[in-house]
Amino acid sequence: MNPMVSQQIESLIRIAGQLIRVLSREVAFLREMRVPDLESLQQEKLDLTVAYEQGVRALADHPAVLDAVAPALRETLSEVASQFDNALAANTRALNAARDSHDRLLRAIVDAVADKRARERSYDALGRFPLPARGRVVPDIRPPAVTQAAARRTTDLRKCHSISPYRTRLADCRSIRGRSTRHRRTSPT
To answer: For the chain, what are the domain ranges?
Structure first.
């Protein structure tokens, strides 16, 4: 057995063990939602992943090398590779779960904001603004001309129904209710 090959395999086993520990810490940080701690692991994870990939490629390029390795070292490499696969699967599940959780949270926030905006800016079935929440003032978003015309009609209708020194004809009040015509008064009697 070539001592250089044994060193390469032992180095690969060591790198795989370190990568397994990093992946396990990342899964723990994801479960605890410790996002700032995740950032500190990324460079170490990247470096170990590149080193592991290079070691696996070197073995794949020369498959006869594994036949020359001692059976105990080959079994250790096989166990570490199995542990690595399990750690990688757990890490992938945790990353997908965190991503899905964040997506659902963002979608819920966007939907809540959209619903709130729709309720605040829309009219109800009768063409009115919904009642504001306690302590809130609903702004009048109608153009000033519409607001002034509505105020004139309201004032005119109040005059029709109020007691005043002038008598109004019933036809005048009906025309005010039906259209936005000016209120006509008759002379006092």
So the answer is: 3-121, 144-178
